[in-house]
């Protein structure tokens, strides 16, 4: 298995693990395709940097409408406009994917340090994401009914110095402690929303 296929596999497995743990549903992950024509709806993006070998940046991008649907499913509450809860929820989702990605790499003696999620609001059809000297994996993740987002992984063009790196294995799942931490983060978001509603 070549290096690009290894990163693609661990990323797809990480996305699948987190989606199943968070939404109790198996996501459909496909290759991203550029949308034709103008995109009139505003979008938001969340990015995280991973310092290690190879250096990576993860980017989750969704229309405002899809981001609201995604977080509504996470919190079990109907949200129709982008607010602090939506930004926090999408940021936490990316954080969980990055944590799973990091754990899978660690089993092969590669350590990663994670940055905090950065949320970017108000993107439109003129917005472009450019990261120099990097290769890119581009995916679209779909959850039924009617929820999808785009996911990108930018990584250094050079392969790790260790040519004996083992292939990533599937079916490892999210360890219990990580799933508990994810659920605690989601409960905190729910509690925060309930307090704001009761005011």
- What do we call the CATH homologous superfamily? CheC-like
CATH topology: Chemotaxis protein chec
Q: What is the count of β-strands?
A: 7
Strand content: 15-25%
Q: What would the average pLDDT be, to the nearest integer?
A: 76
CATH class: Alpha Beta
H-E order: HEEEHHEEEEH
> Stretches where pLDDT falls below 50 for ≥5 residues?
160-180
The overall number of domains is 1
Cα Rg: 17 Å
**What is the name of the CATH architecture?**
3-Layer(aba) Sandwich
Helix-strand layout with pairing:
Elements: H1 3-23, E1 28-31, E2 43-51, E3 56-63, H2 64-75, H3 84-106, E4 113-114, E5 118-123, E6 134-143, E7 147-156, H4 176-198
Antiparallel strand pairs: 1-6, 2-3, 2-4, 2-5, 3-7, 6-7
Helix pairs in contact: 1-3, 2-3, 3-4
Describe this structure in words.
The protein has 199 residues and is α+β, with helices and mostly antiparallel strands. It has one domain (3-32, 42-158, 172-194): Chemotaxis protein chec, CATH 3.40.1550. Helix content is 40%, strand content 25%. It contains four helices and seven strands, in the order αβββααββββα. The chain has helices at 3-23, 64-75, 84-106, 176-198; strands at 28-31, 43-51, 56-63, 113-114, 118-123, 134-143, 147-156. Strands 1, 2, 3, 4, 5, 6 and 7 form a seven-stranded antiparallel β-sheet that branches. A hairpin with a 3-residue loop joins strand 6 and strand 7. Helix 3 (84-106) packs antiparallel against helix 4 (176-198). The radius of gyration is 17 Å and the shape is globular. It starts with a helix and ends with a helix. The model is unreliable at 160-180 (pLDDT under 50).
């Amino acid at each position: 298995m070549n290096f690009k296929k290894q990163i693609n596999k661990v990323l797809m497995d990480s996305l699948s693990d987190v989606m199943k743990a968070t939404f109790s549903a198996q996501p459909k992950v496909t290759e991203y395709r550029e949308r034709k024509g103008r995109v009139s709806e505003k979008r938001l993006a969340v990015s995280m940097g991973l310092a290690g070998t190879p250096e990576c940046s993860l980017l989750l991008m969704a229309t405002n409408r899809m981001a609201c649907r995604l977080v509504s499913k996470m919190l079990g509450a109907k949200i129709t406009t982008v607010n602090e809860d939506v930004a926090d929820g999408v940021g936490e989702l990316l954080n969980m994917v990055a944590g799973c990605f990091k754990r899978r790499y660690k089993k092969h003696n590669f350590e990663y340090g994670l940055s905090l999620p950065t949320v970017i609001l108000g993107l439109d059809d003129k917005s472009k994401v450019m990261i120099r000297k990097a290769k890119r994996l581009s995916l679209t993740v779909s959850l039924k009914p009617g929820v999808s987002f785009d996911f990108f992984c930018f990584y250094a063009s050079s392969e790790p110095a260790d040519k004996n790196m083992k292939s990533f294995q599937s079916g490892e799942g999210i360890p219990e402690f990580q799933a508990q931490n994810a659920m605690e983060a989601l409960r905190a978001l729910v509690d925060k929303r309930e307090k704001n509603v009761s005011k």
